[in-house]
Design brief:
This protein has 312 residues and is of the alpha/beta class. The chain is 38% helix and 22% strand. The strands form three sheets. A five-stranded mixed β-sheet has the order 3-2-1-4-7, sandwiched between helices. Strands 10-9-8-11-12 form a five-stranded mixed β-sheet. A two-stranded antiparallel ribbon has the order 5-6. It starts with a strand and ends with a helix. Bound molecules: zinc ion.
């Protein structure tokens, strides 16, 4: 049995989730902190360091007895070298030796992983994809991305950037994407893409309309508004086509759908499942069974993936 204590931080654009996990996956402490606005990498490291030392004090665990620190983050990063190349949510666009910055502050081993890669490892180890050797985790949130688990291990690609399906092209017409390209899947079908489509149709300065966010478009669609319904229908179709292509390429036995938008709109998983089964080449659906399921560990799938990685 593993009787060690692990620290985990999931760094998001608006908040940082901190977990201290003891023996038997027992959560000793769970904390959410705001990500400082316009945070530099040094500042994020400082926030983690200060919060963690306070947390350890609180539960009377000495920092020396920490068995590992696992950090996952929505970023294009090189796992081997621990370098972040691009973290759009944090507005980091230059290479940052982020794992080294952390390692200078902690004596335990430090692991740095992309959040969706961590999430698929979490779901395969403890969640919805348990027992699968070939699986993918898809996040539908502000953006869209995938973590791939192939032949029993995380698949990162040659540079560590595999799974960026949010930038599949070409969807819609004439919309710039945060990656610098245009008409990427996520510029139309992510939470932010859906809100942008809403803002094209309605004037949010009109007090009877109110703030035009993802939830508003979903709510109106559910109330029967035809325009809002067509935005959601198109987003589901775009995601369905993309996941069908992913299934056709990889032939996984399980696809786990997570992320904030999917979590708040549970009907979405079934709608996407129907679309993708329609578009994928038949044998990947009919001959080898493909489960398309909601994530089980949300919103902590990434954090538990880091736990799984450190316990191995
Ligand atoms: Zn893009």
């Amino acid at each position: 049995m593993d009787n060690k204590v692990y620290a985990i931080a999931d760094v998001g654009g608006t908040k940082i989730l901190l977990l201290l996990v003891g023996p038997d996956q027992n959560v000793i402490l769970r904390q959410k902190l705001p990500t400082p606005p316009e945070a530099t990498p040094e500042l994020v490291v400082k926030v983690i360091e200060v919060a963690l030392s306070r947390a350890l004090q609180e539960v009377a665990v000495s920092p020396q007895s920490l068995a590992g620190l696992g950090v996952c983050i929505a970023a294009l990063l090189d796992f081997e070298g621990g370098v972040i190349y691009e973290a759009p949510n944090l507005d980091w666009h230059e290479p940052i030796p982020f794992r080294d910055l952390l390692q200078r502050r902690f004596s335990c081993p430090v692991y740095l992983e992309n959040d969706t890669n961590a999430a698929i490892l979490g779901e395969v180890t403890y969640g919805a994809a348990r027992g699968h050797r070939d699986a993918a985790y898809i996040t539908i949130s502000t953006g869209i991305g995938a973590g791939l688990y192939l032949d029993g291990r995380i698949y990162r690609g040659s540079g560590g950037f595999a799974g960026e399906i949010g930038h599949f092209k070409r969807f819609g017409k004439g919309r710039r994407c945060g990656c610098g390209g245009s008409d990427c899947l996520e510029s139309w079908a992510s939470g932010e893409g859906i809100a942008r489509s809403g803002r094209m149709l309605w004037d949010e300065s009109d007090p009877s309309i109110g703030p035009l966010n993802t939830a508003a478009v979903f709510d109106w669609a559910e109330e029967g508004d035809i325009l809002a319904g067509s935005i959601i229908k198109q987003a589901v179709e775009d995601i369905g086509i993309s996941l069908a292509n992913l299934a056709t390429l990889l032939n996984p036995s399980c696809m786990v759908i997570g992320g904030g938008v999917a979590r708040h709109r549970p009907a979405l998983v079934g709608q996407i499942r129907e679309k993708m089964k329609h578009f994928a080449v038949a044998p990947v659906i009919k001959v080898s069974p493909l489960e398309v399921v909601a994530a089980q560990l949300e919103p902590e799938a990434g954090a538990w993936g880091m736990h799984a990685m450190m316990c191995r």
